[in-house]
Amino acid sequence: MPLSVAAPAKINLSLDITGTRDDGYHLVDTVMQAVSLCDTVTVWESDQPGISLELTGAGADTLPADDTNTAWKAAALFREAVKKRGMEPAGTGIRIHKRIPFAAGLAGGSADAAGVLAALNRLYGSLLEEEELADLGGRVGADVPFCLLGGTAQATGIGTILTPLPDLPDCDIVIAKPAGGVSTAQAYQAVDRAFGCTEETETPLHRPRTSVLVDAVCSGSLLQVGRELCNVFEQALRLPETEMLKREMNRFHPLGCLMTGSGSAVFALFAHRTDAEKCAEALRLMKALPGGAPAVFLCRPFRGGPATPARDPSLG
User: 148-169 b/e with 16+ CB inside 10 Å = b?
Assistant: First the structure.
């Protein structure tokens, strides 16, 4: 019988680069928040051997439905884990209805991988412990363990060392994704160049006060959270679309707005639903952005990771 979960996107309330490992991976210090912008991930046991993957929804026709997809990789790792327990898994069918934009900094691919792992584990009677699932997720991508955990958390290392935090106070979150995307590799190159610059050649990056932001989350001060939003990628990339979106968002007096991840999506936090709705409507009417009006989503904090049964994310 098919089993469906809602796989939430994430935003970065702060994002800093703290160094690099010998293997070239960047070390981060970031506070992430799951949001109610969700893909729907459905899995089932199939009579056909191996893995099959079907993608529907926004942008699905531009994404691979093969073994290069993060969802497929997650399913393959889960099947290996099942075999190590002396079981022969049936065929695995996967259907993903996309709502989370790709190349946005919203972890859409990681959310799908986490959704597959969570859904398959429930389908197989919670065969794997949470730590085992997180380990499999980390082998797919650095954001997958957080997407499994969900809620609010600080992530360090390459993003896989997680410290859960209290839930973000209830609020409305407006997300806007311009037509263009950002290559993660190019974004990291831009940050590396920015960190290597001198005061004579470039403006030094403003670094997040991550500990202050964590204290604000722990104390439940949404106002202070908004004041401490900071992302070094936003400063290093300096995308014109980002600045245009933030200017429009700021007309509606959010608590704060910021580019998420390596871009190009921007989010704003609102204490009042009416202001958020007005902001979302204005963003949908923007025509001056390259490629036309952005994709706009009105959502809220999502408590926890992939949820079943899948529920309407009420995107607004």
Answer: bbbbbbbbbebbbebeebebbb
- Which tens digit of pLDDT belongs to each residue from 119-139? 999 999 999 999 999 999 999
Q: Which of 137, 54, 104 is nearest to 306 (CA)?
A: 137
Task: Dump pLDDT digits (tens) for 86-123.
Answer: 999 999 999 999 999 999 999 999 999 999 999 999 99
Q: Please, what is the Cα angle at 271 between 266 and 277, to 5 degrees? A: 65
Active site residue 10: yes
Query: Which one-letter amino acid corresponds to residue 23?
Result: D
The dihedral built from the CA positions of residue 82, 88, 90 and 94, taken in this order, carries a sign that is positive
Instruction: List the catalytic residue out of 143, 172, 177, 246.
Output: 143
Residue with tokens 């994404």: 63
Catalytic hit among 10, 73, 98, 246: 10
Rounded Cα distance between 152 and 168, Å, is: 7
Distance CA 32, CA 49 (A): 37
Residue 245 CA, chain-centre distance (Å), reads: 19
Please provide residue 5's backbone torsions phi and psi, each rounded to the nearest 5 degrees.
-130, 155
| Residues of the chain predicted below pLDDT 70 | 197-203, 308-316
Q: Is 127 left (phi over 0), alpha (psi -120 to 50) or beta?
A: alpha
Q: Indicate the DSSP class of residue 307.
A: B
**Six token digits for residue 40:** 């729907």
The rounded distance, in Å, linking the Cα atoms of 124 and 94 is 15
Contact 21, 158 (CB under 8 A): yes
How high is the pLDDT of residue 309?
A: 59
SS3 120: helix
Can you list the positions of beta strands (E) in the chain? Answer: 3-20, 26-46, 51-57, 91-98, 152-156, 161-164, 172-177, 230-231, 256-259, 266-270, 295-299
How many whole angstroms separate alpha carbon 152 and alpha carbon 225?
A: 12
